[in-house]
Design brief:
Layout lengths: L9 E9 L6 H10 L4 E6 L3 E6 L11 H6 L2 H17 L11 E7 L4 H12 L12 H5 L3 H10 L5 E5 L4 H14 L5 E8 L5 H9 L25 E2 L1 E9 H6 L6 E10 L9 H15 L8 E3 L6 H14 L7 E3 L2 H4 L6 H9 L2 H4 L1 E2 L23 E2 L5 E8 L3 E8 L6
Parallel strand pairs: 3-7, 4-5, 4-6, 10-11, 10-14
Antiparallel strand pairs: 1-8, 1-9, 2-3, 6-8, 9-15, 12-13, 14-15
Helix pairs in contact: 3-6, 7-13, 10-11
Length: about 425
């Protein structure tokens, strides 16, 4: 078990986020409980009209115009979320030893937006590369979002991005927890970000795969588990959390959102895109074992389901391997509200469920009008939030292309939120 020693217990003390339905946890949670979709019509060059989950946050709140021009949209999202997480955690930032802060940001992909933009501008000069942007390299290096956070906040501890496809939000948090346990840092700023809606390539690729959602009513386009689902709604977003060791958080009187009880990561080794339900189930079982929990002890399972036909079915098969009969476990889905925020998805989806430790409510999966029989789950919460007797544990699932599976289990801490 991961919680062998008190100093190895890792807790969440701050949450900063931007999403298509809110720019802080309170707004985000209110949107989830009210059933409000953040998906709207969207148009991007070369591709045309589509649908997307779009964030509306103030990029200038923590960045100068010059640094915004030099940097990236993903970096701006990460900076905004990191500042908000620090404020939410109640850290006295000037007094924090910046060499003992680590930054671990998950991404699905990075650099596509900036490269597409720069090539578009290059066309105006007949592709004369002498006018190529001298900011290109710093914008597209893989560590950019995390690096922009360190530059903005004066952090001199370790930083890197975690490239983990759509499992990246979970992997950023797992990396932060691991580095705290290793003693490499005392504060971890970790989670995931995505600027994916600003690249036409991702829309074109999903369309060519037959995996891009469309609906006349944008708010009904993202519909995991529904018989009439037809693909993914691409969303941008970000979520950065402050992680600390339990003893440090208690000593400074921090509010604690939850404790990381266990996690697991594995690979399907099966296909570039298609998932393997048995490997997914193995990952869930391993996380439960490491957390010292039985399946029936989990109150809420935050599903990954993206709204693709095959992906949702495979995930439900994996879940039914473990939760085959009705019990206290309930299942929900956040992508039905905001679309698929790619690298940010895991962290955002966990964040949306953290307040359940306080209000005991499981938010719903919306747009579930005709349940696909192959997606039946015992305890699936559809269309309206459900008041539970108690919520002590949340299990968060994120899967990624090339068969990457991740599971993170968080528990309520007595006297927490």
């Amino acid at each position: 078990m991961f919680r062998a020693r008190q100093e190895e217990r890792i807790v969440i003390t701050g949450v900063g986020l931007t999403s298509p339905i809110g720019n802080n946890l309170r707004e985000f949670r209110e949107g989830l409980l009210s059933g409000r979709s953040g998906v709207s019509k969207y148009e991007i060059r070369y591709f045309g009209e589509t649908l997307a989950g779009i964030c509306h946050f103030d990029e200038s709140k923590y960045q100068t115009p010059k640094n915004r021009r030099r940097g990236t949209r993903a970096g701006s999202i990460a900076i905004f979320c990191a500042h908000e997480a620090i404020l939410d955690a109640g850290l006295s930032w000037p007094a924090v030893n910046k060499s003992r802060v680590g930054v671990y940001i998950g991404v699905t992909e990075h650099g596509n937006v900036e490269t597409e933009n720069e090539i578009y501008l290059l066309r105006q000069f007949d592709y004369d590369t002498r006018v190529w942007s001298h900011y290109h390299n710093q914008r597209t290096v893989a560590n950019n979002p995390a690096g922009e956070v360190t530059l903005n906040l004066g952090i001199t501890g370790p930083h890197y991005t975690v490239g983990a496809a759509c499992a990246a939000g979970n992997l950023g948090l797992i990396q932060g927890a691991q580095m705290l346990r290793l003693g490499e840092c005392d504060v971890a700023l970790c989670g995931g970000v995505s600027e994916s809606i600003h690249t036409f390539g991702i829309f074109a690729s999903f369309r060519s795969q037959g995996a891009l959602a469309w609906h006349e009513d944008p708010t009904k386009a993202s519909r995991p588990f529904d018989r009439d689902r037809n693909g993914i709604v691409v969303a941008e977003g970000g979520c950065v959390m402050v992680l600390e060791r339990m003893d440090q958080a208690v000593a400074r009187g921090a509010r604690i959102y939850g404790e990381i009880l266990g996690y697991a990561v594995n690979s399907d080794a099966f296909d570039y895109v298609l998932p393997d339900s048995h490997r997914q189930a193995e990952c869930i079982r391993l996380a439960l074992e490491r957390a010292g929990r039985e399946p029936e002890e989990i109150d809420i399972v935050s599903t990954h389901a993206t709204g693709t036909v095959a992906g949702d079915i495979q995930e439900c098969q994996a879940l039914r391997e473990i939760w085959c009969t009705p019990g206290r476990t309930h299942f929900n889905n956040t992508k039905s509200f905001i679309g698929h925020a790619m690298g940010a998805a895991g962290a955002l989806e966990l964040a949306g469920n953290l307040p359940a430790f306080e209000d005991q409510i499981c938010h719903a999966t919306i747009n579930l009008e005709n349940l696909d029989p192959q997606c039946e789950l015992p305890g699936l919460v559809a269309n309206r939030p459900l008041q539970l007797e108690k919520v002590h544990t949340v299990l968060n699932i994120s899967f990624g292309m090339l068969g990457l599976n991740s599971v993170l289990i968080v528990g309520r801490v007595s006297g927490g939120v």
